[in-house]
Amino acid sequence: MSDDLQLPRAARIFVSFVALLRANGFSVAPEQTASFLAAIELLGPRSLEHIRLAGLATLAPPPERRATYDRLFDIHFRGAEAIEQAEGEDEETVRLQEEGRGEDEPPLTDEANESGLAAARAEALVERRFAQAATSDPLRKLSREAARRLPRRRGHRRRRARNGPFADLRRTLRDSVRNDGEVLRLGRMRRRQRPRKILFLIDVSGSMKARTEENMKLAHVLVQAAGNVEVFTFGTRLTRVTPALRLKRREQALNAASFLVSDWDGGTRIGDALQAFLAVPRFGGYARGAAVVIVSDGLERGDPAALRDAVAKLSRRAWRVSWLTPLATSPGFTPQTEALIAIQRFVDDLVDGGSSAAVVAHLLSLGTRRAA
């Protein structure tokens, strides 16, 4: 190649960033690359933030992949500095991967727990695609009955009622004026019922591989049916997927969630994930007074003590903690794994989570519990 066709040395780092985006599934046309370089030249950037904004304006990453774009930008331009800073940032994804121990070798692609029947500790970072399928009967039932059967709580506002613990003095005095000052009937009031927050935590590790897709579809229906639901996934990392699941079309929502979650079908470190959840004040606030539903087999490969402590803290914040496991195949289920034995006394329900029908039935049964 002649010298006049070679890429200027100063531009190589920007072109290689575009190549990194393409390697990670971003669609970037040659014209966008040229516009990106022109924007850099025009700005004469004085900071990395100027370069980041130029890339957002010209390379146009999809909104649902903005976090991935930012992460790739930091890795490319900041290198090791970005990894050190990531722990202190308020991100939607809390990284739990153990660095530099060398005790566990990540499984090769062909050996990465294809059966989904065993728990793994090592982290496997993959993307997942969800198949298009018709909505099952349990999901239709959840969508139809969620508004009236999901759990509720007593609000602070009051409403008129035939019988209630509070006297409605305003209405009583108004009625007495119509009856020449005689109080014929004492008006009553009671506290309004409001929907209770629901925190839905989904295990996406390799041992739950067979149930992951159905659980994500169920989570999407739940988010669409109730406005106060928060959904997180966990395996070796903790990821908030609520914004993606708020998209109305299921295929679009699940595809957006698949880009956010990077530890599909990987290892299982439930205790670390829950500890990370509680360590972020904004996330921990989602659990306060909420109905917490954890869908996991409980095949923990981390420290059971960390899981026990996390579930104990969660139970003190939440209204109710339900652990749904595919291992609970009968009403008289007795935990056999070390992790489930450790958390049993801190959960209110330890029931079957091996099918969408079982999960939906439990969610709708929470509405029969007495509102606090």
TrEMBL record:
Superkingdom of the source? Bacteria
Q: Sorted alphabetically, which InterPro entries does this protein's record hold?
A: UCP010256 (IPR011195), Uncharacterised_CoxE (IPR008912), VWF_A (IPR002035), vWFA_dom_sf (IPR036465)
Start and end residues of each VWFA domain: 195-365
Biased region (Basic residues) positions are 149-162
Q: Where are the transmembrane segments?
A: none
| Residue segments, region Disordered | 84-111, 142-164
Q: Which CDD domains match?
A: vWFA
User: What is this protein identified as?
Assistant: VWA domain-containing protein
Q: Which organism is it from?
A: Bradyrhizobium elkanii
